[in-house]
Structures are given as structure tokens and as C-alpha cells.
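Field: COMPLEX_INPUT
Field: COMPONENT_COUNT = two
Field: RESIDUE_TOTAL = 470
Field: MODE = joint
Values follow.
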Amino acid sequence: MTISSSALTTESSSIMDPKASILCLPNEILSKIFENLPSKDRENVGILSDRLDDIEKRTGCRDFSTICFSTIDKPEIVARDVNANKFRKWPSEEGLANFFRRSTCRSLVIDGPLTVEHEQCIRSAFKSVDYKELLVDFKGDYSGRILIDLLRSRSDIEQLHIGGSRWMLEKEVEETRRVLMIIPTTRRLAVAASEGKILTDSILAHLVSVSHYTDLGGVKETDVTVEGLETAFEMVSAASHYKEVSCTVPASAVHQFLDRRQFSVVFRTNLQHIATGTKFNYRLDRDNQDYLYVSIQSDKSPVPL
Amino acid sequence: MVLITLVSSDEQNFPVERELLKQSGTIETLIVNMNLDDEDTDAAAMPIPLPNVKGDVLEKVIQWMEHHKGDPVKEGDNEDNNAEIVVPQWDDDFFKPAMYGSKHLELTVAASYLDIKNLLTLSCKAISNTFKGKTGPQIREEWGVPNEFTPEEEEAIRKENEWSE
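Field: COMPLEX_OUTPUT
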């Protein structure tokens, strides 16, 4: 008894001509070959023939150090590969999704005011990009939606940096709060220079729970209460690994908090909680004396970044 | 030791240890579907034809599988694209004599057809390595890529693709 040879015959796999050139390889194999090449070499191979050019463009799987989508001067995407070669793409360009498909990068940066067209472009270009750090500037209505989109299905990001230096409309504050509440596990989180009251007790608790290093010092005014500060303090103290959080808190809440717990003074306003060893530091916000800048650090050894 | 006979496109028979064939997704699927692992089945009496692989290529594939017997077999296509693939010295020496020739390409196609993921990955990586740092004309010559463009067309394509700075 024998197995029919048709059981193992496929159209795409035919016996090769003994004088075959690399062009005799099927597209899927050529694509795998491109995946292993640095960008410059890929470019050199891609321009050898129309077919190789087409496969190279469709392959994706590029390795970048940074990809920056910026609308500051004009909308463009500037990506740098690991060898510091610089690549430019324009949001209107076709094939962006293929170009960045399954690519990896250290930092993905979204900078400048965004429109609904940019939102679509970012969604399509970066949906399969694997990044370690995400830096997003909050400017315009679409930043929040884009951030939610980029964070969707991400379970672990090393660093998330949310910027935005301008006064915020009430609806933007609401949008930002919504975004902050869905931030996934992030090793280091920083919210920089926001003038909106985006921080509440529940948001602070969520951010401390998902991040080892939570830097919210850029948020000028907050609605954090003494209860919120206590919750954050307890979370840092009880964490099994090192945690650190800094944020701006109304001065009255800080004073109430200090009245409720026993600290030893290490130096001036550098305190240490007697029961847990957790460090607590506060200082005046020079720009706004109603607020204190607070820092809480657990007594575990910091994990190197 | 259970042996299963593979038959190449040029009708050569290769009795192969059952254990080795676990590296080939294509053959493994066939063995399972045909119940060749069943104790009541005389596996040796049921040769598996491989109409897309020539004898000399199949011999190389078996040689590679013998060396990699017991290696973990990759499953699925979810490779870590960020991971740097290094071709081990033994594999480099294995691929080198046939590199730049149709034999290596046939081996790569066979790895794809037989779904031997580790062999395909290493073989593709070995080809990729030959491109590194080479100019277009060098690659053309080494890998037999005919120039289908006039010098003017080539220059235009280069300019069109030259978006890197």
C-alpha cells in the first residue's frame, strides 16, 4: 500500500530549475529573507527588480529605534532604525500599514495637534507595531482616542509619557480622565505639564496600581483628597516590589494626611513612615502655594530601569 | 526503532527514523491523519511520496534533521521579530557549500514545503546574511538577478525608493 503522491502536491511548490536564481523563490520565502535584513540592505535588494521591490514594501517587520508621527511643521512620520538611518513617510502615503506592519521600535512618539485623518492614519500605520515606550502629546480632541487605540490590547509597556502643556477644556479634562483610567501595566508612567485638573483619587489609585514609577508631578492642580493620598500611600507601602509615586496634592490634604500617621524626620521634609519604612517627601509648589509636591517611595530596593 | 520511508520526486527511497519526522509539520500531519503511528499499521509498508522534493535535496534535509534531532520544534508563525537570529556554526558550515547555488534555494523551498520551521528560518537567515553590506550589482551577480531595467529606469527607481537620509 502506498500513499498517493497527490496528497503532498501543492501548486506553489514545484521542483526548481537547477539554474534557478533567487527570483525562483516564492514570495513568502523572499519575505522571510527580507525580515532578517537591516533597512539599508533591504533597500538595496528591493531595487533589483519590480517583484523584489513589491515584496520588500509589503514585508514590514522593520526594526526601528524611534518612530515619530508629528504634525508640528507638516504631518510626517520620521522613523530611525537601529543604525541611525532616517526614514520619512507622509500620512497620505499608501502602503503605510504594510510598511510598518509587525515592526518593532523602542519609542513611538505622537506629537502635535491631530485631526480625524491623522487618527485613521495612526490607527492603520501603527496597529501592529510593537513598541516599548509611548510618548503622546495631548493636543486636540483626537489625542485621547488615539491613545486609547494605541493602548488597546497592550498588556505591558515599559514607559508611557503623556504630555500636554496647555489649558484644557472641560470635555478634554473628562476625556483625559477616561484615558488615564484605562492605562495598562506600565513600568514607568509620566504625565507631564498638564494644566487641567485631570487627577482624582480613583485615577491616582489606578495609576499607582499599574505602574512601578508614577510621575504625575506635571499635573499642576489636582482633586486628590486625603483619602486618595492615603490609598496611594498604602498601595506603595504594601507593594511586593519597589514603587514610587510623585504628584501634586492640595496642601490641606497633605497636612491632614501627616496628622493621621507617624513619621520620623530624616531631613527637613524628608520623612519615613515608622510602621512601614515608606519614605514620604513634600515640598511647596512655587507656582501655586495651595498645592504641595508629594513623593512616596517604598522601602524596597529600586529596580533599575 | 520505527522507520518510515520517504520517496523523493525522482523515486529514491529514504527510510527515516519516525522521531526525526516530528520536525516536519507537513509529514507529521500526514502521519497522524493516516494513523501511521497506530501499532496495527505497518508504517514501513506505506512509503510517503514527496513529489516536490528531489532525492539530493531530501538527503540534505534528512541530514539536517538528524543533526537537529531533539531540538524544540517551533509552533505557529508567532515569531519574535525583534529577536536576532544567529546561524549556528554547524548550520553555517552545512549551508555554505551550496550557498549561491540552486541547491540552497531548493533546500529552502523544501523546508517551506515540508514545514520544517527551524530549517526554514536558518536557511532564510543564511541567505539574508549574504546580502548584508553588498551593492545591488554584487547581489545581482551572486544571486542571478537579471537586470530588467535600463540605466535610466534603474536611476528612477533608486530615486523613488531613496526616502532614507
